[in-house]
Amino acid sequence: MRRRSVTLTLPPAGRLRQRWELPNGIRIIAEHIPSAYSVALGVWVLAGSRDEDPSFNGLAHLLEHLVAGYSQRHTSRQLAFAFERLGTEVNAYTTKEAVCYSAQTLRPHVPQVMKLIATQLMHPRLTKHLLERERRVIAEEILTYADDPEEVLYEQAETLLLGNHPLGMPIAGTPESLQRIALEDVATFHSRFYVGERILVTIAGDVVPEEAATAVAYAFGNIPQLREPLPPRFPPAPQPAQERTLQRPLHQAHILFARLLPKMSPNERSAVTLLNFLLGEGWGSRLYQRIRERSGLVYTIASELEWFSDCGIWSISASTSPSSLHRVERLIQEELRRISEYGIREDELLRGRTALQARLAMILDNPTECTTLLAHTATENASAPFAFQSLLDLSRDTACLFASRYCQPEQWSRVRFLPTQHA
User: Fold this and answer.
1) Max CA pair span of the chain
2) One of 64, 158, 329, 348 is an active-site residue; which one?
3) Is 151 a catalytic site residue?
4) Among 163, 255, 303, 360, which is most exposed with the fewest C-beta within 10 angstroms?
5) What's residue 14's pLDDT?
6) In angstroms, rounded to a whole number, what is the distance separating the alpha carbons of residues 6 and 371?
7) Alpha carbon distances (Å) from 125 to 115, 180, 295
8) How confident is the model over 230-261, as pLDDT tens digits?
9) Cα–Cα nearest to 242, from 408, 413, 409
10) Nearest-CA neighbor of 159 among 59, 231, 232, 258?
11) CA dist., res. 269 & res. 313, Å (int)
């Protein structure tokens, strides 16, 4: 291993963050949290649904199911018992840009847990029988998403914002693409992407960083560095604002406003994160106070940000009675216009800055969330949610500039879900 750097994080708390890179390209970031009683681990394979051939959409997610559940040396039952004997909780999930295999355990068990995860990653049990079983499981998963109005709305919004760009493909794939995936396709994806230069390991909690790095080196040191060139990623082209209305036998009407954001620097992301908080995140936000508290038109309304390595999506969602939908849409547009034309007040800047700094501190207090934050900030061209210093440096003028640039309601696409009888 060669040591990359040592960075002190939050010195008053005595936190130490260290980084290494193994000869095979695997990066390691370990952070000691003095107050923690457990250790959280995240093994990130930096390849997700956007890196798939569109004909085999869902491949990264299907491989995740196979890797997380079995290995050539363990059945699913044996793996479950092995982790439980080590007092370890495990999880796995796929995003559009990465697959994460995570665990939370106690410090003495870190080396054994690392060995188990490495065995899963590099020696998956790829058989036709297991492939067919997980294909059926994911088919049920897709149906679950199809029954959730919010999932469908967001998927539809992605198609409007992203067009045919790979980021617009659903993570789980489609029933049709799932059926096209053969065992050979899964094996090829594994050999291409489960390599050292695509793996990042983050560790946080009750851990000595050097001990953790040694455990990773011992467990993952034999992973090959790189087998072949990786496909390039490119940002999506902006699409004009569009509207789409869907029908379902529902009780409520649902609305989603969404817009594409360009790639941003950490300081720029902090400005948009603050605007998102003031606009629709939390009980004190403009949308919640006006549409929920003052007008009583919705039970919940919220805005959120999703960042990718080269762009982002900003969305606002709400559900209401069909008779109130038009009014809710109008009020959302009015609040977007108000913030785009008049910006934010100084007291809002101070309130949002304090709330977001506290949120970041809470993330850093939680070992599992800290491993995710470490992964975001360490990945090349990744989008860290926000940082203390960039929030402190953020001025009202800068926040107002970004509000005028990105909050004009004409720039936002809309997707509606109407109950069938009201369509």
Assistant:
1) 65
2) 64
3) no
4) 163
5) 63
6) 17
7) 16, 20, 56
8) 788 999 999 999 999 999 898 999 999 999 99
9) 413
10) 258
11) 12
